[in-house]
Design goal:
Layout (H helix, E strand, L loop, with lengths): L2 E8 L2 H11 L6 E5 L2 E7 L12 E9 L4 H8 L3 E4 L2 E4 L10 E4 L12 H13 L6 E4 L5 H8 L5 E5 L3 H12 L7 E5 L9 E7 L2 H14 E13 L3 H10 L3 E8 L2 E7 L4
Bound molecules: S-adenosylmethionine.
S-adenosylmethionine binds next to α3, α4 and β9.
Length: 270
């Protein structure tokens, strides 16, 4: 099959977001970014007559010979089935029909759902995050955990990261999931900069980060609040538990996949 390749340079950042929304649900073969360009592949006979050209600064169209790029991207970022009714997919794969069908662009920030740590943080959120709960997402990356929490009814959500790139990734992923940007409060900085207490904290970073910041986790949780930690291996379980137990946390749940550990701890009610 022959393909048409569109290279689009959006007018500005807002136009870029709107173009992503436009392409969502269109029968396109693939879409990704290369610097400021959005690259879209269409089957030769398909047209995009309704492309909002007012959002486009530059548009180039070429014919592509038959190639295996489509299978390459499909293989690299297949749909993730979190469970029967929850999926995660990149924007160039069509809706899965799942009740919660998360769309995450595999961009510069970590968190597409393909890594066992992200996957299990989502599963633990599904199990423990109740409607109306508040959540602090420490190290939000792509924003995937905050977006999922928003979908299942968390109320106040703060997405924290030290990498400024993640703000744009979070905004784009919010747009792809029809989540109002103000629903998730992005914060650039450290936990100490976040005000208030939360029902849940989710931290998918590394064992040393967890151990060093454990007192801050305790401070940021309400009595009886839950701490979901991930991003470490079996060999680190003991030292993570030791530190958290010293602070009065009790283990509530645990999952291990491919040697990657995700654990849930509850803070004491007193
Ligand atoms: C493994 S990714 C997790 C992304 C996403 N939460 C997930 O579960 O897929 C870790 C993220 O933590 C961020 N990070 C690293 N150190 C941090 C710190 N001290 N405070 C806040 N975020 C941090 C990184 O920039 C990165 O985006």
């Amino acid at each position: 099959m022959k393909w048409r390749k569109l290279v689009i340079i959006p007018k500005d950042d807002v136009s870029r977001e709107l173009l992503y929304l436009f392409f969502q649900g269109k029968a396109i073969g693939g879409l990704w970014e290369n610097g400021e360009k959005i690259i879209v592949y269409l089957e030769e006979q398909k047209t995009l007559d309704d492309l909002p050209t007012n959002l486009v600064k530059h548009l180039e169209e070429t014919e592509e010979p038959e190639s295996d790029w489509k299978n390459y991207w499909k293989k690299k970022f297949p749909v993730v089935w979190v469970e029967k009714n929850i999926t995660i997919r990149p924007p160039w794969i069509g809706p899965t029909g799942a009740v919660i069908d998360l769309v995450i662009y595999p961009g510069l920030a970590f968190g597409t759902g393909h890594h066992p740590t992200t996957l299990w943080c989502i599963r633990m959120l599904k199990k423990y995050c109740k409607k109306g709960n508040t959540l602090l997402d420490v190290g939000t990356g792509s924003g995937i955990l905050s977006i999922f929490a928003s979908k299942i009814g968390a109320s106040r959500i703060v997405a924290l990261d030290i990498d400024p790139l993640t703000q744009k990734e979070l905004q784009r992923n919010c747009a792809l999931n029809n989540i109002h940007p103000q629903k998730i409060d992005f914060k650039l900085g450290s936990i100490a900069d976040v005000r208030g207490k939360f029902d849940l904290l989710v931290v998918n970073i590394g064992p040393n980060f967890i151990i060093e910041n454990a007192p801050l986790f305790e401070e940021k949780l309400v009595p009886g609040g839950l701490l979901i930690v991930s991003g470490f291996e079996r060999k680190d379980i003991q030292k993570v538990c030791y530190k958290l137990n010293l602070l009065g946390f009790q283990e509530t749940d645990r999952a291990v996949q491919n040697n990657w550990v995700t654990m849930v701890f509850s803070k004491s009610r007193k």
